[in-house]
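Report of the visiting student (M.T.), summer placement. My assignment was to run the structure pipeline on a short list of targets and document each run. The first record concerns AMIN-like domain-containing protein.
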Amino acid sequence: MRGDTRTLIPFVAMVTCIALAAGCQSTSEQTGSVDGTTIPWATVPAAQSGGGAAPHPPDPPPPTDPNVGPGSPGPPTPTTPGPTISGIPFFPHTALVTPPVPGVTASGVHVERHDGFDRIVYDFGGTYAPGWRAEYVAEATQRGRETATRINGRSILQIYFFDTDSSAESGIAAYNGPNPLSDPAAYSVVEVHLTPNYERGTQSFVGLRTDYPQFQVTTLTEPTRIAVDIHD
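After the run finished, the structure tokens were exported:
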């Protein structure tokens, strides 16, 4: 009986080692982003970022002279240097004030199905688009929160919009449609989450049906919008 026990111990140890090796291999091959495991960065499309489309500020009005009536030429340009500062002459001039750039708010989002890709379109009131960064993340964690939001899908793409404002600051009505948003005609996009503006930033999390598909972010015009194309 003792001999059988000595024979059984090495056999059990060998089975245990095989099981542990199989378990380690399974863990290293996990790629899910929904359950918080490690993302295989070597096979994931790289992050993309861009400056959006800033508005062209209006030309400043020409300097006016209260002693000159409408339609009359303005004051002549001085040709003689004025007083000097530290021995350096300067020419008097009228300061040009550039008006501040108005803020924007995420006012709309929808999903479109195209041949070979799904397109997510973000609107910011149609005036101009903010800067952005798009990248895959392991979990959907909103700024200012400690717990992640559950996103349906096999992978999560985050689009972060910079320098956004609340509706009270920008005067643009914020998006108030379905959140998360889904479209039965979409192939890759399962759902789109859009977070409220927080500390001049807005996040969007996109749950995708497959593992880390290729994507492309572009700025559309007339009106100005940001489009995220998810390829099949």
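The two ends are 63 Å apart (CA to CA). The chain is about 15% helix and 25% strand. I thank the supervising group for their guidance throughout the placement.
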